[in-house]
Design brief:
The protein is mainly alpha-helical. Helix content is 61%, strand content 6%. A hairpin with a 3-residue loop joins strand 1 and strand 2. Helix 2 crosses helix 3. It is elongated.
Length: 105
């Protein structure tokens, strides 16, 4: 179940790291952990399943199997650099990241 996977990562890594890996706010992570989140958690559930559901690895269309930390770093880099990338590999990564099925569009 997604909540058990989420709780395990939260307790092992802490809320800040989990929030970064999932690409959500730390406040949301804390509220969900304490079961005080009042909105729907469906999108959050999908992120947990996509990012932590494969034995702690993310299947990246551009890089293959990577850790959630690498995924979050590459995702943030792609959003930051965008179409300004001069390197063909970075541009390919950007195009892949913006259409990512793991992190959502």
């Amino acid at each position: 179940m997604w909540i058990n996977i989420f709780r395990q990562h939260y307790e092992e890594k802490g809320p800040k790291k989990v929030a970064g890996e999932l690409g959500v706010s730390r406040a949301s992570v804390d509220l969900i952990y304490r079961e005080e989140y009042n909105a729907s958690t469906r999108n959050f559930e999908k992120k947990v399943e996509n990012i932590y559901g494969r034995n702690g690895k993310v299947q990246c269309a551009a890089l293959g199997e990577i850790s959630p930390v690498v995924c979050a770093d590459k995702w943030n880099l792609a959003k930051k650099i965008g179409m300004m990338a001069g390197n063909p590999e970075t541009l390919r990564l950007y195009k892949t990241c913006i259409n990512c099925s793991v992190r959502g569009k």
